[in-house]
Amino acid sequence: MADLQSQDYIRRSASTLTPPSVRNHDQEVAKLIDVSRCIGCKACQSACMEWNNLRPEIGHFEGAYDNPADLGPSVWTLMRFTEHENEEKNLEWLIRKDGCMHCEDPGCLKACPAPGAIVQYANGIVDFVSENCIGCGYCVKGCPFDIPRVNPVDHKSYKCTLCSDRVGVGLEPACVKACPTGAIMFGSKADMTDWGGERVEELKSRGFANAGLYDPQGVGGTHVMYVLHHADKPSLYAGLPENPRISSFVGLWKGIAKPLGLAAIGFTALAGFFHWIVAGPNEVQPEDDLEADHLLHGHDDGTPGFDDHRDAAE
Amino acid sequence: MSYPAGTIVRNNTAARINHWITGGCFTLLVLSGLSMFHPMLFFLSELFGGGQWTRAVHPWFGVLLTVSYAGLIVQFWRDNLWSWDDIAWMAKIDRVLLNEEEGVPEVARFNAGQKFVFWSMALLVPVLFFTGLGIWEVYFAAFTSIEQQRIAVLIHSLAAVAAIMIWIVHVYAAIWVQGSVKAMTQGYVTPGWAWRHHRKWLRRLAATGSNPPAPGAGTELRR
Question: What fold, for B12-81+104-215?
C-alpha cells in the first residue's frame, strides 16, 4: 500500500537485481493471533477499516456471522466463524481472523509481473505498492491463502499491509491495538513464537492435546501466526490450508519457464540468423524463369497456355 | 486491383488483408505478452502506455487475432491438407535448408514447413484464446477457480513461447525464400518463383488455366 521504506526491501517483485537492502538489521516482526482467546467482537475489523480508511459496500446477510461475507478490495481482514462439533458432541465456536499471512516466501510476490508492485521489507512485511500494480491478478494465483482481491474499479490489488505505515514508525498494527482480549499480539517474530509456545502449553494443560502454533514452513513460515486448539486440523478453521505452499504450477511458470522460454525464443532467432550466414537467401535463378516460361508458353500441341486464361486478375 | 503482366496471383487482396491483421495483432501480442512474462522485458509495456494499459489491451488483441486467424483457416485450410508428398519433402529437409533442391519432391501451393506453421498456429491460437479467457481478470476471474487460473496461465505462457518460436520460423522463412514477402504484400509472384518453390502448384495452374488463388486451385487434376 505505502511505499515508505525504499531502503530496506529484501524482495521486490519482477526484479532481477538485488533491491536496496542496507538497513538489514531490522528485526523480523510477527502478529500472533490466538484463536482460543478470540471472542468474535470484530473490533479488529473496525480498527482496520478506520486506520486504513476502508468503507466496504454494505452487503447482504448470508446466514452466518461473517460480515462482510468475504475479503475484498476494501476488506483486508475478516472474522470467519465456524461451528464445530467436537468428539464429545459439544459445540466449539472457532473464530479465525483471516487476512494476509505475510509469508516469508510470498507467492503473490513471486507471481507478480510488475516491477516493485509487491515488496517485502526486511522486517518481513509483504506490501502492495498500488502505484506499480497493473491489475493482472497474478498475485491471486500466486497466493496459497486466497487473500489478494483486485478492485474492479481501479484495477489495483489490495490486502492487509500489516499496517506497515504504523509499524514503520514504531506502532503496532491497528487490529492489535483494538483487540480487547489480547488475542492479537504483535512483536518480534522470535518473541511471538515464544509467547505462542507458552499459549500452546497452557491450552494443552487444559485438555487441548492437539494445540499448536500455525507457522507453516511450506511458505518459509509466516509473519502472521495462529495459536490453534486443533493445530492437527487447521482446515477446521474456515478452510485454513493444512500445508500451504506456492502451487507447483506457479513455481513452473515463474521458475524454469521464464529463462527457458526466453532462451528458446532467442535460440530460434539465432538459428535463423546463422542459417542466413551459412546457407543464405534462396533466390530464383534464371533457369527457373526459363523453365516456367517453357511450361506456360511452350505448348507445341496447340493447347492453351497459362496466359490465354489469365485475365487482368481481380 | 491489378497485378503486373506475366505474374501469378499468390494471395488475393482479402487473404493479404486478413494475413496482415493477424500479423499485426500477433506482433502486438508478442510485445505486450512478453512484457508480462519476464521482468527484463517489462519495459515493453511502455509501448502500450504502461503496465495497466498493457494488461488491459493485451486480451483484446488476442480476441481480434483469434477472429482473424479463423479467417485465415477458412481461406487456407484446403491447400494445407497434409499429404504423403509432405513426408517425402520432410525427408529431404536438409537439402531444402541448404538451398540445394535437386531431387526434392515438387511442392503444391504450400510445402510441409508452411503447413506445419499453419496447423501449429491453428492449434495454438485456440489454446491461447481459451486459456487467456481463464486469466482475463476483469471479465472472467469469477468464472474460474484459482487453481484453474494457475493451470491456464502456465499453459498460456508455454503455448505463447511455442507460438513465438513458430512465428520467428515463419518470418525468417519468408525472408530466406526471396520473393515470399512480395507474395504477401503485393500478392503476386513470378512464374520462375512458382517453378522453383511450388512447381506442382504451377503445373496445375498451367494445366487447368485456373485463375489463382482460389482455394484448391488446380486440384481438378487430382480427380
Answer: Fumarate Reductase Cytochrome B subunit (1.20.950)
